[in-house]
Amino acid sequence: MRVIIIDDDFDAWRAAALDALAQQLTPESIDWRTAQAEPALFGEAASPAGAADAPHIRVSRELASLLKDAAHFRDPRRWSFLYRVLWRWAQGDRSVASPADEDGARLYKMAKAVRRAQHDMIAYVRFRQREASLGAPEYVAWYEPGHDVLAWAAEHFAARMGRSTWLIATPDAAAMFDGERLQLERRRALASDHAVDTPDAAEALWMTYYRSIFNPARLNESALEQHMPVRFWKGLPEGALIPQLVSDARGGARRVAQAQSVGALVGKPVQVEAQDAQPERDAPTSLDNCRRCDLWRNATQAVPGAGPSGARIMLLGEQPGDQEDLKGEPFVGPAGQLLHDAMQRAGMPREQVYLTNAVKHFKWEPRGKRRLHKTPAQQEVQACSYWLEQELHDVGARVIVTLGATALAALFGRRATLAAHIGRVVPYRDKLVVATYHPSYALRQNDEAARERTVAAIVEALERARELIGS
């Protein structure tokens, strides 16, 4: 077994790896070890031994980038793994650079984690300004990166902070910029040598500003923790505020949002109807851009009614189903086919009837790969009544056949029960209403006889509607 000891950085490994390739050393025959150098404080790092005489091997630009990024992944076995990747490439095995390969997949995963750590460090490093009497550096920061990305981040800040002097300390190393030159120190002792818990006059102003822009009514805790992971909070000035702000939001601050002084005022309660308490919304110009409720967010499209404007009978269902949502037409799925059969038995031509639903967007919940129907809430039925009223006015049908409890409630309110209306003809404004079951209710019957009784009730209601219009 050949022991190769290198400094813990990419350039040292690259020089040693090229030399090992020149000697045809297999990955299994090398024991890679690292030795932490001990240069003077913020001294220059020495060049890797033998780098000038190292042989060359041509690799793709993508593989070179992956190797360089993965070299910063925190894993004591990374140098051995990277050499195995380079060895396979040198032997002509190009699949090692593919994410479909086992080693390739690991290489991509390591590089991705390092790039994420680079992004996080840029986003979550917080500099504090020191008092001028303390001298350089002007700004200091403490950060705990997930991988060895300090050198990369230091170059980023050096290019963007002008001639300001600063220090970034981490548990394993530190970076310092004196206004002209960037220096790195890799000794672990630096973590305790440079205290960064220094007061900053601007920090109090920032904390006040952060409190003022934090809106508990719009708080989404999962999104907050996704974009600002909890592990970074301790390094952020505002991190000390977040737990209390979240707790206040859970405890009721959401109801008054940022207007806490308004929420604390004592006033006389005023009784109003629920519909009058709703915020005014601009009337949508078309059903396609309706945003009166949130059902449009997960629906493929709105499903308008279909049929002749002069139809004397309107069939009113609950909402579109899965197939209706995809096709954009009402009653084209299994329930629609059952309704079509019932209409034929009742002698009611489909082309002479107006078909629509109380709710125009498909409300569903996932169940594996399927989208299962979910009954609309009363507020969603009320929001969609805007479109139903237009249809009742434009179509002018004499008789409405409501299919199911939701359709009945869309006309008479949620207290109207299907059991109390089946078999009756009920006036509604200048129209007559005949209530019956929704075809999907028949489809859910496990017993064939029960299904036939439900279908027969639907046929009977359709026949009653025909009688009422005198045809």
From TrEMBL:
Occurrences of domain Uracil-DNA glycosylase-like (ranges): 304-463
UniProt keyword DNA-binding present: no
Stored SUPFAM superfamilies: Uracil-DNA glycosylase-like
GO biological process: DNA repair
Organism domain of life: Bacteria
Sorted UniProt keywords: 4Fe-4S, DNA damage, DNA repair, Hydrolase, Iron, Iron-sulfur, Metal-binding
InterPro entries for this protein: DNA_repair_put (IPR023875), DUF4130 (IPR025404), UDG_Type-4/5 (IPR051536), Ura-DNA_glyco_family4 (IPR005273), Uracil-DNA_glycosylase-like (IPR005122), Uracil-DNA_glycosylase-like_sf (IPR036895)
GO molecular function term, any single one: 4 iron, 4 sulfur cluster binding
Recorded family membership: Belongs to the uracil-DNA glycosylase (UDG) superfamily. Type 4 (UDGa) family.
Protein known as: Type-4 uracil-DNA glycosylase
Natural source organism: Caballeronia novacaledonica
